Amino acid sequence: MSTIQITINGTSQSLDVPPMKRLLDVLREDAHLTGTKEGCGEGECGACAVLMNGELVNSCLVPALHADGASVCTIEGVAPSAAAEGEPAHLHPIQQCFFENGGAQCGICTPGMILATHHLLDKYPNPTLEQIKEGLAGNLCRCTGYMRIFESVQKAAQALTTIST
Amino acid sequence: MRSDVTQYELTAPTTLAAVLAQLAAEPGKHTPIAGGTELMVALGVGRLAAKSLLSINHLKELRFIRVDDDAIHIGAGTTFTDIRRNADIARDLPLLASSASWTGSVANQNRGTLGGNICNASPAADTPPALLAYGATVTLISTNGTRTVPYTEFHLGYKRTALRPDELLHTITVPRTFAGWKQHIRKVGTRNAQAISKTALACLAKLDGETIAEIRIGAASLADRPLRCTGIEAALTGLSIAKADLEATVRAGRAALAFEAKPIDDIRSTGRYRSIVAANLLEEFLRSLVL
């Protein structure tokens, strides 16, 4: 067993885990954050994508030891937390745009899609359709046919640009 | 059947020297792991034979891109994303930049390394064709020092390399002396993104008027290992691409490829299909020289 220090969605924690345990399983089983989904388990589908030190990674391919000292953002950490007890929590603009534009259907690919979109819009605030297609090429969806996801990302880019200007 | 992760050891010595010392002390016992985009897949499906892994993922000594007058030196731990973001590589080694851009997805490019792509030694790997065409050399390091060998001598057979059990790949050195050469690379897979190649061809040619003065070709999946196609190169050197000669040159290239290619059959394609597609890619390159 190894003791790893990992910051997940802003909270630092110490976890005793087998060093080759997949970050995906550490998040789900040890940190009890089940928003991150397993799809293929071999880095092809992007369902398990999270941000590690700001970079998009497939958490099924990251051994726990490689996350030692890292800061990880999962889907649970994307939306801002509710300002006060009893107030409704707000979705992040990316989540809101997926919600409003039919970018999410069955939901399995959605956490990875949202984080890949987050990573994409950090790099390209006003992405072209080609940049969106390339940025999300590692995230497979079997429901939407992708067009609604691309539209959701374009709307999210507009929403985020409006907020920041 | 998934592996039992508690049966695997993974340690991360803090320096390159410490990693090399451990490899030397127990040769063959430890398998280096960098970005994990290959070994973690094997772990996931219960096919990771190595039980003791040595992380080199965090070693800053292996992650660099250094440019001098004649060459670009790339540390083995450099990620595909690092390569894609580098302006010198984009300008001087466009075939390498292109191959890095279609290696897996963005998430895999953020983790996977050039050294891993080479040492995993798949005949279908994305970056070797470009590195072979550019005439790269590789520097290997152990506690006994370093040795530099032409990359063409690194791949010995299917998933077999010149790397000794106590050695690590340290640097890939690529000449940046191809200004004025025609450069072309194309990969054929099941889709544009994320697919593993059926075949790929990286081509460089230097023209003297309408004559092919020099030509260099690297290929994926045309043999049991990444292949520098010296037979095709010999057949095409000195041939003309003038209008009256082009068809004969194309025929000579296709014939040489059919003779040199010994592609394997596997789940992604058949050897026969790979040979035909690679010949089409070569023809595409030769015809592009005329434009």
UniProtKB/TrEMBL annotation, chain A:
One Pfam entry for this protein is: Fer2
Entry keyword set: 2Fe-2S, Iron, Iron-sulfur, Metal-binding, Oxidoreductase
Residue ranges of the 2Fe-2S ferredoxin-type domain?
2-78
Q: Does the keyword Transferase apply?
A: no
Q: Which GO terms describe its molecular function?
A: 2 iron, 2 sulfur cluster binding; metal ion binding; oxidoreductase activity
The record, for Gene3D superfamilies, names: 3.10.20.30, [2Fe-2S]-binding domain (1.10.150.120)
Q: What is this protein called?
A: Carbon-monoxide dehydrogenase small subunit
The answer to whether keyword Ribonucleoprotein applies is: no
Q: Which PANTHER family match?
A: OXIDOREDUCTASE WITH IRON-SULFUR SUBUNIT
Automatic annotation (TrEMBL), chain B:
Pfam assignment, any one? CO_deh_flav_C
Is Flavoprotein there in the keyword field?
yes
Q: Name one GO molecular function term.
A: oxidoreductase activity
Supply the alphabetized keyword list: FAD, Flavoprotein, Oxidoreductase
Please report the stretch or stretches of sequence annotated as the FAD-binding PCMH-type domain: 1-179
Protein name (database record): Carbon-monoxide dehydrogenase medium subunit
